[in-house]
Amino acid sequence: MSEVHVSRRARLRESCAAEGGRNPADAVLVSLPSNIRYLTGQAAPGAALLLGADGEDTLITARTEDSEPGRPPVDGLRTAVLAASEGDPVLVAAQFAVESGAGSLAVEEHHLTVARHRSLGRTAPGVRLADLGCAVEQQRVVKDDEEISALRVAAEITDQALGELLESILVGRTERHLALELERRLIDHGAEGPAFPTSVATGANAGLATHRPTDRRVEEGDFLSVRLGANYHGYRCQVGRTFVIGTAPDDWQIELYDLVFAAQRAAREALLPGASCREVDGAARRVLGDAGHSAALGPSTGHGVGLEIGEDPRLTPEAMSRLDACVPVTVEPGVHLPGRGGVRIDDTLVVRPQADGGPELLTITTKELLAL
């Protein structure tokens, strides 16, 4: 357990006390898996983390074949391992909160079901339940050097997997087969797994934002769009590229590709500390709108990445937040022409000031329109 996790939990306590005003919660219960991993460094399915009123932090997990029955506190974190008959870790955490003398308990209401929330009330009837809200997610937005290093490795793995695929024969292979091969290559290069379901889209499917691979085979003249990312030590990146199958692209393919590339470049150049998220979204949206594709972008130009592939901030027209330095985001505009196909270009970048060279590009696979 590293000191960074101790520091993160201390910051959460401080922010909860500041936000609570006259009625701060005595204890905090975290149940969202990505938030628990951020605060403890441990990825235990179904776990609960209690920051107790007595100042002791406890991670409650369900017993597995490899788990130990209990360990003394390490760097301020006590662990409790439950047998299946001992119940829900969230409810056990509430019991611990009562034992620690808590009069109030902040919980992640956005993650708990109604039934689970009611059970908490019954488990700790004398404890006032408060909403923690997205306090941990907000703390996660700005990444430290260790987190950005993990994202760099994830991006390197992703670029490697994609680069190897481009060197293979593609014509005649199905979207599904290519997607499975990409995910295997991610793991071969050191990823825990894919950051999200890999998308390979060909022909009329190319350019669709949420396309699920089918048994359609790659044909000469197709657009081929690929979206993938590696999960490395829990941190997830995203890259999307579009290619043409054959000796040379058609004029309409070049025109469409150049348009999406220009939109992506405009958004990337707007990624500076202090810029509003809506300004970044608008930079891409204006380029597409001027070319008659104002509706093509969809609800957003991109989003934050980290322990989840879709984190804050959101690059949307409605977003009210501004970007900070050391915030990793995707920039992923695309245009799909029904019946013909389309283009998507996705990158993962870290917001940096101009004095440091501007946005740091993590995914470096070429954005040239290659004919494969």
Short descriptors:
three-stranded antiparallel β-sheet, alpha+beta, seven-stranded mixed β-sheet, 33% helix, single chain, 20 strands, 372 residues
Describe this entry's structure for a reader.
The chain has 372 residues and is of the alpha+beta class. The chain contains nine helices and 20 strands. It has a seven-stranded mixed β-sheet, sandwiched between helices. Strands 8-11-12 form a three-stranded antiparallel β-sheet. Helix 3 packs parallel to helix 4, helix 6 crosses helix 7 and helix 8 runs antiparallel to helix 9. The radius of gyration is 23 Å and the shape is elongated. The termini are far apart. The mean pLDDT is 93.
- The average pLDDT value, as a whole number, equals 93
Number of helices: 9
Question: Approximately what portion of the residues adopt beta-strand conformation?
Answer: 15-25%
Shape: elongated
- Count every beta strand, where a strand is a DSSP E run of 2 or more residues: 20
> Which sequence of SSEs, written as H and E, runs from N to C?
HEHEEEEHEHEHHHEEEEEEHHEEEEEEE
